[in-house]
Design goal:
By secondary structure, the chain is an alpha/beta fold. The chain contains 17 helices and 19 strands. The strands form five sheets. It has a nine-stranded mixed sheet, with helices on both faces. Strands 14-15-16 form a three-stranded antiparallel sheet, covered by helices on one side. A three-stranded antiparallel sheet has the order 17-19-18. Strand 7, helix 8 and strand 8 form a beta-alpha-beta unit.
């Protein structure tokens, strides 16, 4: 599918030029630049100095699955036994207690507005254990009345009593891992998941009162083509879902060795990946969805569409979000906390994480304290990623917000955005640079222009640092997250 706004002769050149390793900017600075100089003591200090009454968002990582999906880039462990999961939950509860006790030193409290369970597969928990975990969370933190509580589910063989447990414990949003409904594609990625079983689970949850549904679709998978992925999009819409996240598959077998089971010859090339993404985006927009930022889609009346329109859309480790909490605490092995002053990541090793938390210690092993310039650049990048525009006035305002006086380099970078005009990736309109609709897929290329940690005009530094996926991925909640720009 050729985008009419980009000339055919130029498109292949653009895809080659910009298909470089570039962060997804679910954080800034990104995880490859975290330092092991940041310790549990640093994290504890940051927790104790949270602003009075600061709202919290909580993320819980359940790093277990019962089958291995070959495309997966998450930090997870395959197990057919429940004992390791039960032991992990003990450690997770201990971490919850430890952090809650630290936070409770602030008498004004910190209301929890969002909770997200990611994986792995959170629904691998038994109904009783999930209920026990939720009870422990609710007894440790104060949840607001309208708190969003989201769980990523694997609809394959999920028992009815687990669905009931989700409803009984106040879950009000589910995120369904899907990828593609085509049997050939599913066989090529070792994830057999029929439309019937997926729809059946979504319908059951809707009958239990859980009607807010996200679906993940991945383009660029082996054996995939435009016809197949459009069929997946059509079937997804037919299930009455609210939001779709459209991610690109990254084939990185040197990082995730199980991806060697995917045949390189079965993978679409850069042009085909682009065509798939554009085809799905066009189809969804024609069928009642707004495109949100880079890779999300939401119905017109969805809160995410409203946040896009009024400028309150945010970006965190789960991607685009309506969550406005400035502090996100990550629980579980490899989880990352994002607090006002920096990022703090837990030990990725399950045995080390469990040993540490079972001794009532924090599991922090690396992170980064934000400089004033980091804060400024983070806000600029988030504005580009969420609103697809930036102005000189925006940069001056953001600098003023953070009392950052050294604006010269940032304003020079702003003026240099004209270099993207010749490629049709950006448009100057009055006093704003805007990313046109047809260039949305190149959005991260524009955002990277303000990334001081990347080598100028190159993703080489990011590529060199992004070696260990257990340490350097985004929050391990989504499948198939990648660093390639297209």
């Amino acid at each position: 599918m050729q985008n009419p706004h980009i000339q055919t002769k130029n498109l292949s050149n653009l895809l080659e030029k910009y298909s470089k390793p570039i962060p997804r900017y679910t954080s800034y600075p990104t995880a490859p630049y975290f330092s092991d100089q940041i310790t549990a003591k640093t994290f504890q200090s940051s927790l104790t100095t949270l602003p009075n009454g600061q709202n919290l968002s909580l993320y819980f990582h359940i790093p277990y699955c019962d089958t291995l999906c070959w495309f997966c880039g998450c930090h997870t462990k395959i197990t057919q036994k429940y004992q390791p999961i039960a032991e992990y939950l003990v450690a997770l509860k201990n971490e919850i207690t430890t952090i809650a006790n630290i936070i409770k030193q602030n008498p004004t409290g910190h209301p929890v507005t969002h909770i997200h369970f990611g994986g792995g597969s959170p629904t691998i928990l038994s109904p009783a254990d999930f209920t026990s975990l939720m009870q422990h969370i609710k007894s440790s933190f104060t949840l607001t009345k309208n708190a969003e509580i989201a769980v990523e589910i694997d609809p394959r063989d999920i028992p009815d009593d687990m669905l009931n447990a989700l409803a009984d414990n106040g879950i009000n949003r589910i995120s369904v891992g899907l990828q593609d409904f085509d049997p050939q594609v599913q066989k090529a990625i070792n994830r057999i998941q029929t439309f019937k079983e997926t729809k059946n689970v979504i319908n059951k949850l809707a009958n239990l009162g859980i009607k807010n549904v996200n679906i993940d679709i991945i383009y660029g998978l082996p054996k995939q083509n435009i016809s197949k992925i459009l069929d997946t999009a059509q079937k997804s819409i037919s299930m009455g879902i609210d939001r779709i996240a459209l991610f690109g598959y990254a084939h990185v077998p040197w990082m995730k060795t199980h991806q060697k089971l995917i045949l390189t010859d079965d993978l679409p090339n850069a042009q085909q990946r682009y065509d798939q993404a554009e085809a799905v985006a066009a189809y969804l927009k024609q069928n009642g969805f707004n495109q949100i930022g880079l890779d999300h889609f939401a119905k017109h009346n969805d809160p995410m569409s409203t946040a896009t329109q009024n400028g309150t859309l945010k970006r965190n480790f789960q991607g685009y979000t309506t969550d406005e909490a400035a502090a996100l605490i990550g629980f579980g092995a490899s989880s990352i906390s994002s607090l006002p002053d920096g990022y703090f990541q837990n030990q990725p090793s399950l045995p080390s994480y469990m040993k540490t938390t079972n001794q009532n210690n924090l599991a922090t092993v690396r992170g980064l304290i934000l400089s004033t310039e980091d804060h400024v650049r983070r806000d600029i990048i988030e504005k580009i990623m969420c609103q697809l525009k930036i102005s000189q006035a925006d940069i001056i305002s953001i600098c003023k917000k953070h009392n950052f006086t050294n604006q010269t380099e940032l304003l020079e970078a702003y003026n240099q955005l004209t270099k993207f005009e010749q490629d049709g990736l950006i448009k100057k309109s009055n006093d704003h640079f805007t990313i046109p609709e047809h260039a949305r897929i190149f959005l991260r290329v524009i955002a990277a222009h303000f990334d001081a940690y990347l080598t100028q005009n190159s993703g080489d530094t990011y590529a060199q640092n992004n070696k260990n996926p257990a340490e350097n991925t985004d929050q391990p909640a989504r499948k198939g997250r990648h660093s390639l720009a297209i």
